[in-house]
Amino acid sequence: MNIKRSIPLAVAVSLLSIPANAANQSPKAQNAEPNPAVMPVNSNPHGASYSDWAAHWWQWEFSLPTTANPIFDTADCSAGQTGNVWFLGGGSVPNFSPEPGINGVRQTRSCSVPTGTFLFFPIINTECSTVHGDNAGDITRTGLQACAVGARSTINFSTLSAILDDVVISHLPQYLVTSPLFTFGPLPNDNILQFFGLNAPEGTIAQSVTDGIYLMLHPLSEGSHTLHFHSEFDFPGGSGFIQDITYELNVTR
Fold this sequence. Notes:
Blueprint: E1 12-13, H1 50-63, E2 85-87, E3 96-99, E4 102-114, E5 118-129, H2 141-150, E6 161-164, E7 167-168, E8 176-178, E9 182-184, H3 192-195, E10 206-217, E11 223-234, E12 240-252
Parallel strand pairs: 1-5, 2-5, 4-12
Antiparallel strand pairs: 3-4, 5-10, 6-7, 6-11, 8-10, 9-10, 11-12
């Protein structure tokens, strides 16, 4: 298995040239229990499926320059948010290394959210696009899907966790979804793909597919809440990437 490039965004990582059978290497969600704080994965919040919202999450992320982007901690969580669904992200630039070859992002953020707002975010995700270097060579819909889904083989499913106000959100693999092919752009200058060395100048319009574990939280009650999530990638050769993110949420009118 040859991974040509990885992007440690908000656990948003593009992993290339991964075996096609990797999609079958993720655990199945069996006897999944409901999580009252989370919209069911087969629901359609605000008229869109989880798969559609996963695409919208990336469209939001791609629309923001790294100089004014919550995932880069250069803007607060309200940046680019519209409507009754807000997007949260993880980290972009590694800030700790527990051992050689293992890098990670550990971050705590404060975020003020209006009452009545749903929160949508990835625990761990991947994307592959038609931008050169952000795919495994096949830029058809099928090829991009295989590229994104293939990265599941590097997810350490045993490490995944999400906790809201000290309550564990269980059976996270049940929220694993693959998006349809979607369009993003035009990209701003200083966009996230440029940050990671790709030729994606301002104005670029491209298509992409994302795969990952996403959660849609019901609107939280007014007041303070704590959201924590953790995920890990295990790459070939003993390297890896860890994400450990905490949001101190303040829900206000």
